[in-house]
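Collaborator request, handled under Task 6.
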Amino acid sequence: MKLKFDSNLDYQTEAVNAVTDLFNGQNSMHQYFTVSGQATLDSSQGIGNKIDISNEDILENLRKIQFYHKLAPSETLPSLDFNIEMETGIGKTYVYLKTIFELNKKYNFTKFIIVVPSVAIKEGVNKTIEITKEHFKGLYDNVIYDHFVYDSSKLEQVRNFAVNSNIQIMIINIDAFNKSFTDPSKETKANIIHREQDKLSGYKPIDLIAETNPVVIIDEPQSVMGGKGEEAVSYLNPLCTLRYSATHKEIQNLIYKLDAVDASEMELVKQIEVAGFVSEGYHNEAYLKLISTNNKPDSPISAKIEIDKNEKGSIKRKVVTVKKGSDLSEAKLGNREIYNGYVVDEIYCEEGNEYVSFTQKDEILTIGKVFGDVDDLKLKRAQIHKTIEEHLDKELAFARTGKRIKVLSLFFIDKVANYRQYDSEGNSVKGPYAILFEEEYKKVIQKPKYSTLYNYVDLDIAAEDAHDGYFSVDKKGKVKDTKETKAGKLRANKDDESTFNLIMKDKERLLSFDTPLKFIFSHSALREGWDNPNVFQICTLNETTSTMKKRQEIGRGLRLCVNQEGERIHDKTVNTLTVMANESYEDFARNLQKEMEDETGIKFGTIKKDAFAHIPWTNKKGIEEPLGKQHSLAIFNHFKLKKYVDSKGKIQEALKVAVRDGTVDVPEEYAQIKEEVVKVVEKPTKGLRIRDATKRRQVRLKEGILNNEEFKLFWNKIKHKTTYSVEFDTEELVSKCIKVMQEHLNVQSPKLLYTKSGLTVEASGVNYDENGVISTAYSEEDEIALPDIVKYLQNETDLTRRTIVRILKESDTLNQFKKNPQEYMQETAKLINKVMGGLIVDGIKYTKTNDSYSQELFKNEELFGYLERNLVKANHSVYDYIIYDSENEKSFAERLDNDPEVKLFAKLPGWFKIKTPIGNYNPDWAVMLGDEGEEKMYFVVETKGTIEYLGNRPNEANKIRCGKKHFEALGNDVQFRESNSYDDFKKKIEI
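C-alpha cells returned to the collaborator:
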C-alpha cells in the first residue's frame, strides 16, 4: 500500500505561497565558491544560494503577505527569520517539502537544511521525504534531488552537499551541532561538525555548509532554539530561516497561521471525543493523591494532597494543604476516622522525586500516584475493554457502508514490563496488560453483532495477532523502557532510534487489511514525531497520572484517515478520534484547553485590544491599509460600552448571543469591515470542539418520510447528476488579460544599495567587511540572462504558445520583463490565472445525465452526533436529528422545522456532490414549501454563514456559482438560493 498525496489543497498552497512570495523580484541565480580536495589539483566548485533583492523589497513583500493573510504587519526586518504556524496533523512536513521544490523552481535555490529537535522527528521527516518522492517527481518534472540524514561518520555527504548542483536536502538534529562550537579549548568535546577534518582537506564541515548559504527549515523551533540553539543555527549562515510549528514560543515575522481552532473548523483534522473514566461514590478506603510540594523560601515546606473530606455529612473530594505533623483525620482536613494514623512525617521536594510519607502508615505518596481508589487493574481493564469495543464498532460501521478503511488503536504505557516480561531463561512472556487485552478481546468479539467481521476465525489466534508492541530494544534483544528528562523530553539513544526506524518503516504496512495487527502498545515517551492517520482510539494506561501533554497524546491520531488505496478521506462522519482518558471528560477538556492557551497564545473567551488591528479597510483618504491599533482600540471600547466584554477583554454572554443571532453591533465608522470584525470574535466565543463520548447519539433515518410520495417526488427533481463543458471566447480572454496587465503590472528593477561603513560598490557586486550590514546590490553593468517566459507561462496557465505571445505583445509591458524577469513572469501568471478563473465559471455549461443519486443511499450512511454540541431535534426531516456545523446552521434547521409552510427538508448528505472544474461542491439544504392543496415549491439552499467563514477563498464562491448552474440545467422547478439567514431566505421567495 502506498499513501497518496493531494497537491491541490488550498490551505497548503497558501502556506507554500506565503514563503515563495517573500522573494518576489528575485532572479534565478547561484553563488560559487572553491572547495579544495586532498590533492592540490583535486578541487571542486561549491554552489550556494544567493539573494539579489534588498531587505526593503523583502519587507514590502512580507507586508503584502501579512495583509493578505490578515496578520499583524512587521514594522521592520532585522533578520530573515519567518514563522509559519500550522496545527499538528494537517501536513506541516509536506508543506515545507513542497516549499523547497517551489523555491527551486522559481529562484533556483538548491541548498536546504531541515533542523529537528529529536530523533523521533528526524526519522519522521526522513520517512516523509521517502514516501513523497514519486509524488514530487511527478509534480516537478522529474527534478533530481538528494536527501540524507547527517551522520558524522559520513562526512563525504557534506562535501557532496556543497558541490552538487542539484537540490540538496540535509536533515540534522540540533544536538549534532550545538556543543562547544566557539571554545577551542573544548575541541575534543565539540560536535564533529565543528572540528577540522582531514577527509575534508582541513575544512570544518560547518564551514562548508555555511558557504552554501542554505535555506534553513526549523521543525518545532520552540524545542530547537532553546539554550544554544539560536547561536548554533547562525553558524549555518542561513539565507533565511523558515520556522514551522503549531506552538511557537517566539514570533519573528509571522507569514501564515492556521491554528488548532481553524483546523477543527475547516475539518482538516479528526474531531475529538473523550470517554472519561472516574470513580464515583468510592469512599470506603483512605483516598490519597499527591498533587504538588512547595519549598519556597518565604513559606514553610508544604504539600497539596487530594483526599475525601467529610463536609456536613457529605464526602467530597478536596485538595488540602499539609505540612510536617499534619493529621489528615483532623476536622479541618479530612474529618474522617478512616484517616487515623495518617500524620505527615516527611515532605521531600526535589523536582522529579517529590514524595510525602507518614509516621504510622506505609504508603509513600509520589506525584500522581493514587491510593484508596478503585483497584488500578480494574480501571485498566475497563479502559482496555471500552477501547476494543469502540474499535470494533468503527470496523463494523465501515464494513456496513462499504468503506475500506483499516482501524487502528493505540495504547500508551509507562512501563514496558506491564506489557512484556521475561522468564528466568530469558524467554518473552506476556505482561499483565497483554493478558488483560486478550481476555477482554475474546469477551467483546463474541458479541453477535461482530460475527460478520470475524466468521470462521480462531479467536485465540485472532487475539494474539491483533496486538503487538513498539518498544526500544537493548543489545541483548530485550525490550526496555524509554527514558525521559525531568522536563518530560525524550532522552533518546541508538536503541530508541532503531524503534523509530521500525515504526516509520511499518507505517504503511499497518494501514493494510493484509496486516492483522490493529492494537498497538507503545511506551508513552515515544510520543512525538510519528503518527498514523488511521489511529481512531488512543488509550493511556500509565500507572500514575500521565505527564504526557494532551496535545501530544491526541497528536498521534489527529490526521485524517486513508482508505486501502492510500487516498485521504475528507468525511467528518468518519474522522473521529476517541480518547480513553483516566480522568473525567470535563477535566480532560479543561486541561487540553489550558495547554493550548499556554502553548499557542490562543485565549479562549478573551478579546485583546489590538485584536482587530490586522483587518484591511479603506481609510478616509481612500487608501487600503491595515486598521491599526488605534482603530482596533476604538472597536474594543465600543464592545465594552455594549457589555460585550469587560475591561480585561473577557467575553460576556451578550456577545455570544449577538454572534449567534447575527446582531453584533459595531460603530458606524467601521461598518465596512463589520463582517471581518465578527469573524475575529467568533473564534474566542466558541472554545474547543471536544465531544463527550457519553453524549454521542446515532442519527436515525425516518423511513416514513423517506418513503413518502412527496419526498420521492422532490428527490426525483434533484437526484440527477450532470456533466459540464467549459467554453470561453479567446478574444475576451486576451483583451481582459491585456487590460488587467496594463492596470496592475508594475515590476521594479532590483535596487542598488550603497552603505558608507566599509563597503565598496563595484561592477562585480558588493564587497564588504564581515562586520558591515548590507542585504544585496545590483549594478547596471550586470547582465541578466532572460529566461524562456513563454514556456514558463505555458506551464503555469496551460494556454497555447500563440495566445501567450499575443497577450505579452499587445499588453505592451515587455519592457518591464527586462527590468526583473522573475517578478514579471510570476505576476503575469497570477493575473492571467485570475482572469481565466472568472471566465471558466462564466463559461461553464452543465448537461443533465441519466446517472443519479439513489434514494437508497440514505440507508447506507451511519451518522452520529453529540447532544448539546451539534444535534438539533427535527420532526419534518428525513432524519430524527440534524447534525449542524455552526450556530447559523442550527438556527436555520430549527426555523425550518418550526415553519408551518415547510412540508419537509433535508440537510444534503456528504455524498451528494456536484462536480466543478475547481473541485466537488456539496450544497447545504433541500427544502419543500407549500400548504395542503397548494402548489409546492422546491429549493436547494446554501446558507451564507458557511460562505462567510471561508473568507478569502474565492474557489468556494466559484463552486457555489457552478452549483447554481447545475440546478438550472436540471430544470424541474428547483430553485437555488443563497441566504444569510432564515429570514433572508423567506424574504427572497413568495409563498
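The cover message to the collaborator said: "DSSP finds 31 helices and 41 strands in the chain. Residues 38-43, 751-782, 946-952 have pLDDT under 50 and may be disordered. Please let us know whether this matches your experimental observations."
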